Amino acid sequence: MAVDQEVARRRTFAIISHPDAGKTTLTEKLLLFAGAIHIAGSVKARKASRHATSDWMEIEKQRGISVASSVMQMEYRGCVINLLDTPGHQDFSEDTYRVLTAVDAALMVIDAANGVEAQTLRLLEVCRARNTPILTFVNKMDREVREPLDLIDEIERTLNMTAVPFTWPLGMGRSFHGVFDLRRDRMRVFRPGADRLDEQDEIIEGLDNPEIALRFTENVAQARQEIELIRGASPEFSHVAFLAGEQTPVFFGSAINNFGVREVLDALVDLAPSPGSRQALQRQVQPAESMFSGVVFKIQANMNPAHRDRIAFVRICSGRFERGMNLRVVRSDKDIRTNGVVSFLSQRRELLDIAYSGDIIGIPNHGTLQLGDTLTQGERLQFTGLPFFAPEIFQTVEIADPMRSKQLKLGLTQLGEEGAIQVFRPHAGGALLLGAVGTLQFEVVAHRLKHEYGVDARLASAKYQMARWVTSDDPRELKRFIDTNAHRVAYDAVDAPTFLASFGAELSVAQESWRLIQFHRLREHA
Ligand code: G4P
């Protein structure tokens, strides 16, 4: 098949949700449809261990299993679907943000009892900033939940999108009877039961079919009224508005009962976009170009501590990947061989022979690849848009045993490159500073320093509370700023200067006094 045909049949997306809304369950069901049940098993296994352990031990464990399940690929209706997992804990949302730069669409899962929750909101912000198209699945209709009209209203208000229901529930909880498919004018009758496909589901044709009222009496009138209301109130679905992230199609169901899930999968195939063009500093890159290009959006290190191996996750942006081909790392201008490149077709990592735009490939390496790196067949391209967020919590790091300082440095460099934490080197010297978006990140780093690098690190809270990357069109002005504020400036992993402040007023004073300096909350890898 030609590259453009392969691109056209690809769908790359992530599921975003607040913890416990049902992401794991839904993932499992989606995989079930595509016949990839063995992976579904691993998804379940990962989840099963959750309750037994403390939070960060679990993250540690997940890291072990998640290389296999952090990218899942399946075929459905002739499409190749790449599903990217996103870390669930909010302290790791930074990682999640970067994963979201690698997808072309997102599926938002909402717990119908809780509505739009904090974590969903934050993740949605990132999608909105990139105009990522979003599909919505309202889960757990088999429970006593909130009124569907109320939920639709909340989605529209909090997410600032028009919600266009594609299905509508008939009842909820004990009297949940099924969903109306508003586009195909038929009803899918609910029957509880987890591990089955929906082929056995009973379908009643026609929303006005008198059989519906005869069988489900009490809720029918209400559901019909609601449907009339939303048909009157919400606009027609517009594919253009959906692709622009302005409209979201909404589906109701119950993931655990595998109910209403197929409609979502079908919508992914029918509505979600195939890989589009991507912006590089130099030019716009088209997915069906013949030459390969890709960008590293995630790095997972030390899956096997004995080998210090790490896998760089690369989103293919154009062309076709073939195993063994030479790829140029544009940053370092070095070529790498790709004999060991893996795909994520199943629970095991598998050697990969061919992949196309939209696919994710894993390249094992020992540090030659960093977050944000662009790979090409020689062209000097640098993809933009991989975000790093200004940390909000800082700790200093020191070690008990000075003999281990080399290991500490190595460990911090590698963990920094992986994006697990941000490491800052103060301009004035002294202990390294660690910056994080969530406190849990520190615990994980301390734990990993000890177990992977044999370093007992002492972390102590630092006086800073905010950081801003500083730039200026005038290099002399930037130098003057750095010299004047020497005790408040530190350099990050790529040596970008950062201004550190202990409280908000300090930052605003600096901003007012230094008009030619720009202060950034977000650094895009470039
Ligand atoms: P997450 O990945 O988003 O964190 O959520 P996950 O799928 O783990 O689901 C969270 C809980 O919600 C699980 O229950 C799961 O069984 C339940 N759940 C998911 N979908 C549905 C649904 O459609 N209806 C109902 N009633 N429950 C649903 P748990 O008690 O945490 O785990 P378990 O004991 O069921 O394994």
From TrEMBL:
GO terms for biological process: regulation of translational termination. One of its GO terms (molecular function) is translation release factor activity, codon nonspecific. It is found in: Cytoplasm. Increases the formation of ribosomal termination complexes and stimulates activities of RF-1 and RF-2. It binds guanine nucleotides and has strong preference for UGA stop codons. It may interact directly with the ribosome. The stimulation of RF-1 and RF-2 is significantly reduced by GTP and GDP, but not by GMP. Transmembrane segments: none annotated. It comes from the Bacteria. InterPro entries: EF-G-like_DII, EFG_III/V, G_TR_CS, P-loop_NTPase, PrfC, RF3_C, RF3_dom_3_sf, RF3_GTP-bd. Pfam families: EF-G_D2, GTP_EFTU, RF3_C. Keywords: Cytoplasm, GTP-binding, Nucleotide-binding, Protein biosynthesis. This is Peptide chain release factor 3. Its main location: cytoplasm. SUPFAM superfamilies: EF-G C-terminal domain-like, P-loop containing nucleoside triphosphate hydrolases, Translation proteins. GTP binds at residues 17-24, 85-89, 139-142. Belongs to the TRAFAC class translation factor GTPase superfamily. Classic translation factor GTPase family. PrfC subfamily. Residues 8-276 form the Tr-type G domain. GO terms for cellular component: cytosol.
